[in-house]
């Protein structure tokens, strides 16, 4: 019996050893299979067949632009799913350097800037990514996405060139960004398949080949020489010559109605083989304050798209979902034309994330070439609230001590935003008139960037405007009175010459005398807690600080209301309608929704994501900084009325946006017809 037990133990030992060997062998085979699978995960260019190869198989992408920095992160997946439902297999995004590095060495990759989450979400939804890291992106954003502080570091810096100072900061930024995205390259298991070098560089006319080569080499150093790089311009020989470097695909940007065959022939002059790609195909167009919303024919969009896809080209819609320029991040075009808060772009997916009739039409064209994955989405319900009556809190000038901004600066001559380390918002310049003036005397502010509100002893005297080229104003001002200029930064130029300092960028004269000895108060308006607390009922100090006693609202000034949503309401998107107000900024629960300017149009309403609203029983705080005229402004000699007949300072949330309101300027088509259009 002991002998049998001994044999059994012997057999058991060998059995265990055998099973272990088998297990290890299987694990080894599994590892080899994993390695083999990883090796099969490739994205390459087949120059013989002029196509992309994804894992060795022919592939072309149908993509749409979606900028994470323009969309609340809780909506990223929703927008991506809607893109995929339309037949898209990829998305394209820029990276906005200025948001991620607001000051040198201070990085932000959280919240709405959580790039890792964005890339993971794209992969989870099943979309590949065309990645555009810049450093310059244009995108109708302030300074084309470059940080304002580059101008502070070197006022004559040569942006988008091989300027040593500029390249030092670019390389430092890329040394932070590129290691973050390296794991998300397709070859490493992620969704990123192609990466852009700079952005439409040939169109700017600088033609610094060393700069473009340096950027290409930095991308190769961090991401590998096997990564697919591309450049893009309008399909023009001059543009392609200006950024012609080796080792990158040549792609095109154009809109509907373009001769697609001719555009691709232009690409072939500079890239004899490889896949044909339209990096930016425009289903809409950007907007400017004061100009009508773009009106692009859906039929023409679809016809040109059909031409692109029938040529077996890859294509990306710019934009497929535009989103919103929340806060002060909008840019401007030359000749100085600031852009609105909405970046709806008349894109297939609206600013609020709803599919449009254009979305349906485009999906039908795409379905001719690839099967759609399922039913098309429907618009989401929207919320209406109000009207809500806002209470006047304080004039802006009197509220300055309570906004808790940077300290006041003394300077003999005016200083710019950049010199005072301020990116966005407002700046207040005040000086004492030390001499006897003529009556009236002309105030001349030739270096106003961008809009100035003029006060004498805190009394509003008028508006100056860079965009309207109005830089002078006759004033009646006495010796020893205080002259104040409130300057609004309306957005830095985003294309062409983007060295666009803000504030008073040159001296100010009154009559023939240069004004000196300025007290300068930065007002970035980024202290949201201070703005939310600007409630008269909560601040007796503010009541006591008012330098005048009046029952009339003073502007520029703050107005506010607290409100609670009905118990039955769920979190839904809505649109704030400021009709009756003139120009200003809105904060909801401390979040800067952006600028409104309904008298200029075409945008009237502001998009309000439901994620910003506090549900019952929590309170919501809406604060408006009105710069020029509130609905409850006092009557005067022109408009006779009694106090009881004055309209209230009310505002409401509505279900339907107004983005094509009346404007003072002609549309692009009208300008072309009348021969008045000047290319910005």
TrEMBL record:
The chain crosses the membrane at residues 12-35. It catalyses: Hydrolysis of terminal non-reducing beta-D-galactose residues in beta-D-galactosides. Residues 414-523 form the Beta-galactosidase 1-like first all-beta domain. It comes from the Eukaryota. It holds the Pfam family Glyco_hydro_35. Its EC number is 3.2.1.23. Keywords: Glycosidase, Hydrolase, Membrane, Transmembrane, Transmembrane helix. It is an enzyme of class 3 (hydrolase). The keyword Methyltransferase does not apply. Residues 556-615 form the Beta-galactosidase galactose-binding domain. Belongs to the glycosyl hydrolase 35 family. This is Beta-galactosidase.
């Amino acid at each position: 019996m002991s002998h049998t037990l001994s044999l059994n133990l012997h057999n058991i030992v060998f059995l265990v050893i055998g099973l272990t060997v088998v297990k290890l062998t299987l694990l080894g085979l599994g590892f080899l299979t994993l390695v083999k699978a990883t090796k099969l995960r490739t994205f390459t260019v087949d120059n013989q067949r002029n196509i992309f190869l994804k894992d060795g198989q022919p592939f072309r992408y149908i993509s749409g632009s979606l900028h994470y920095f323009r969309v609340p992160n809780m909506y990223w997946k929703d927008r991506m799913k809607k893109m995929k439902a339309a037949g898209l297999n990829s998305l394209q995004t820029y990276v906005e350097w200025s948001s991620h590095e607001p000051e040198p060495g201070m990085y932000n990759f959280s919240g709405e800037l959580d790039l890792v989450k964005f890339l993971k979400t794209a992969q989870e939804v099943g979309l590949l990514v065309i990645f555009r890291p810049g450093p310059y992106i244009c995108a109708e954003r302030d300074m084309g996405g470059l940080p304002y502080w580059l101008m502070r570091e070197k006022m004559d810096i040569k942006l988008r060139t091989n300027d040593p100072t500029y390249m030092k900061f670019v390389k430092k930024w890329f040394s932070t960004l590129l290691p973050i995205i390296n794991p998300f390259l397709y070859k490493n298991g992620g969704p990123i398949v192609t990466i852009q070098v700079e952005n439409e560089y040939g169109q700017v006319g600088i033609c610094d080949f060393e700069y473009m080569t340096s950027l290409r080499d930095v991308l190769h150093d961090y991401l590998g020489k096997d990564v697919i790089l591309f450049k893009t311009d309008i399909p023009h020989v001059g543009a392609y010559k200006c950024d012609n470097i080796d080792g990158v695909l040549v792609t095109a940007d154009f809109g509907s109605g373009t001769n697609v065959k001719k555009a691709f022939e232009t690409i072939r002059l500079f890239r004899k083989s490889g896949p044909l790609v339209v990096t930016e195909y425009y289903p809409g167009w950007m907007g400017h304050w004061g100009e009508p919303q773009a009106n692009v024919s859906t039929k023409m969009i679809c016809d040109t798209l059909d031409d692109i896809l029938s040529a077996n080209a890859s294509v990306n819609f710019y934009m497929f979902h535009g989103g919103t320029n929340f806060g002060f991040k909008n840019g401007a075009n030359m000749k100085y034309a600031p852009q609105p808060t909405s970046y709806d772009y008349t894109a297939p997916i609206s600013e609020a994330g709803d599919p449009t009739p254009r979305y349906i039409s485009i999906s039908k064209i795409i379905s001719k070439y690839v099967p759609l994955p399922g039913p098309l989405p429907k618009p989401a319900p929207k919320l209406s609230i109000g009207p809500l009556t806002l209470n006047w809190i304080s004039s802006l000038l009197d509220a300055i001590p309570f906004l808790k901004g940077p300290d006041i600066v003394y300077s003999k001559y005016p200083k710019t935003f950049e010199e005072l380390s301020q990116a966005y918002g407002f700046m207040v310049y005040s000086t004492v008139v030390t001499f006897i003036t003529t009556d009236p005397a002309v105030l001349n502010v030739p270096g106003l960037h961008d809009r100035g509100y003029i006060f004498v002893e805190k009394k509003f005297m008028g508006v100056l405007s860079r965009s309207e080229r109005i830089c002078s104003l006759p004033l009646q001002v006495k010796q020893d009175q205080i002259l104040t200029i409130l300057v609004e930064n309306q957005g830095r130029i985003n294309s062409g010459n983007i060295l666009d300092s803000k504030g008073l960028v040159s001296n100010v004269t009154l009559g023939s005398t240069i004004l000196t000895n300025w007290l300068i108060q930065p007002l970035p308006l980024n202290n949201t807690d201070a703005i939310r607390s600007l409630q008269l009922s909560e601040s007796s100090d503010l009541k006591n600080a008012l330098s005048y006693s009046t029952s009339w609202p003073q502007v520029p000034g703050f107005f506010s209301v607290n409100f609670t949503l009905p118990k039955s309401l769920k979190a839904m998107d809505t649109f704030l309608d400021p009709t009756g107000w003139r120009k200003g900024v809105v904060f909801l629960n401390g979040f800067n929704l952006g600028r409104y300017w309904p008298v200029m149009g075409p945008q009237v309403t502001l998009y309000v994501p439901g994620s910003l609203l506090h549900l019952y029983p929590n309170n919501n705080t809406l604060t408006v900084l009105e710069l020029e005229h509130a609905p409850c402004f006092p009557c005067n000699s022109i408009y006779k009325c009694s106090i009881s007949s004055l309209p209230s300072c009310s505002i409401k949330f509505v279900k339907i946006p107004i983005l094509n309101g009346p404007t003072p300027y002609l549309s692009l088509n009208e300008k072309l017809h009348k021969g008045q259009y000047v290319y910005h």
